[in-house]
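REQUEST FORM: STRUCTURE PREDICTION
Request ID: SP-0412
Submitted by: Lab K.M.
Chain count: 1
Length (residues): 362
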Amino acid sequence: MSLSPFHDDRRRVLKLGTVLVMSHLLSACSTPAQPGRAPATAPVVRLMALGGPMTDRARVERGVAALQSLGFQLDNLPALTRRESRFAGTVDERAADLNALADPSLPMPDLIMATRGGFGAIQLLDRLDYARLGPRLRAAGTLVMGYSDNTAVQLALLARAGVISLSGPVLYADFGASPLSAFTQQWLREVLTHDHYTLRIDVPQSMASGQLDGTLWGGNLSTLVSLVGTPYLPQPQDGLLFLEDVGEDVYKVDRMLEQLRLAGVLGRQRAILLGHFSAQRSDGFDPQGYSMATLANRLARQLGIPVLSGLPIGHVADIVPIPIGARGELRIDATGYTLNVSGYPALKRLPAAWTANAATTQ
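STATUS: Completed
RESULT:
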């Protein structure tokens, strides 16, 4: 397969752990903009609150200020304060965060960003207007971005409407963090300002070498497993399945992966890429340590495909946005692997902080 999309003058190979952050970007992120002052040409971020509510007001305000400081204009601000029981609004209110965009008279935002994860997105799957949302999102090149519980809606959009989305940072956990991760912000800019990128993972793998390509898809493991047996789980036959989770001990991860294997999902994959599985505990039954590495090695032998570790995704501060439904090319060597990503829409309008940085580096 030709690698020409990655061999032009714009190719960027950013190694994991290397953060190229410009001082004026950090300054812009740390200085909140005045609400309502975004210029008319500023890219619009529509907020969607599909799951849990946001109870820390200071964190919400930091997230809003950080996005506005970059030069984004925020839409659907009422989603920030909605609450119904343990959710960020009623089922109808949460579904409307997306369904409102099915109306052809409404302008499309540049980006749709999840406010947070939690739980509740799966309640919306049979209430979304895929027939009208799909064509509008694809025609506008609007990416839906989130992770964790939002994986349910993102996978449903791919399965039912062919919509590529972005497993990436959310307002509450990421933009509202103190401090704001420079690594995550730099990678978000890299991904959103280009229609392809290259990610290098310098973590030695059990598979010494190889190369393959396929459809990138996945997200939060426990959320993905909950879609097995429903019409909302994508069925790529050439998958590069990426997975992450939080608070799921190794034996629970093992059980969920076995469910995917028995359901035939893993048999359709060309590779599995594991991100962070944070907040795990030892179950005490294996004195040698029943680890994710042990599980990954066994799964690779069982399936006969690469099971790779070290992908920077998950419930951690430093993450790289990964498109769900885009094209991926894997090159595995003795010291790690390279992932070339293409076939997803870039932002048509860029926030002020990013265009200012681009101008000063030309």
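NOTES: The CA atoms of residues 201 and 337 lie 5 Å apart.
Reviewed by: T.R.
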